[in-house]
Amino acid sequence: MNEFVASELKNNIAEITFGTPKSNSLPGAILEKLAQTILDEGAKDEVKAILVKSEGEKAFCAGASFDELLAIEELEASTQFFGGFAKVLNAMRNCGKIVVVRVQGKTTGGGVGIACGADYCFATKDSALALTEINLGIGPFVIGPYVERKIGKSQFSAMAIDADFRSADWAEQHNIYHSVSENIQEMDASLEKFMTTLASRSSEALALIKKVSWEGTDHFNELMPARIHMSASLILEDSAKKNIETIKERLRAK
Length: 254
Hints:
Number of strands: 8
Pfam families: ECH_1
Number of helices: 12
GO molecular function, one term: catalytic activity
Shape: globular
CATH class: Alpha Beta
Family: Belongs to the enoyl-CoA hydratase/isomerase family.
Largest sheet: 6 strands, mixed
CATH superfamily: 2-enoyl-CoA Hydratase, Chain A, domain 1
CATH topology: 2-enoyl-CoA Hydratase, Chain A, domain 1
Helix content: 40-55%
CATH architecture: Alpha-Beta Complex
Structural class: alpha/beta
Organism: Chryseobacterium populi
Order of helices and strands: EEHEHHEEHEEHHHHEHHHH
InterPro entries: ClpP/crotonase-like_dom_sf, Enoyl-CoA_hydra/iso, Enoyl-CoA_Hydratase/Isomerase
């Protein structure tokens, strides 16, 4: 599978799918394209809502691309890369349309940010999630405000510190997932029914729900430069590069 971002309009719903060969991890080019696609679809009058999903039936999103993180050698390139995650989340927040996210499997790091950037999120019982950035030697700084908005600062801090996986049930109890199904087939059936109903709703009402749901988040824009710099500078440390190589070796051995 080659990396891609694709969009399709179905019954006033813009379905955006992204995919990359390594557990749908996200390189910079895909982040940029995903953010722009969300904004482009959100600008269309005929679009009532946006569905964001990833390719395949395994991991929803493994966060940042390890290969790209290892290749980064300068602060400018690192800043641009982590800024890509900020662009995706900002697009989800500011596109003007309800954003629904479909999570079909485990998700880590930036993938958790995408789930938390959703206005409504579907998942399966296998969709455990974790903030694993500390394992690399960085932290979930860019996605932090979006995760905190859903689960609170204390739970966010705990996830960032222990890097342990939380179950789909936990994610539902803590407002990340809004619907958890036994399997992908059941999730997709529920999702299709939900999106069909959403397509019949008032565009004006949906837009206002989106607006009031994100009230009080304008300061995210002010936070981002410093948050991006935190991750961008830490990932350049030799220790971070060694951590990534160790994790890659461990994954290859499985």
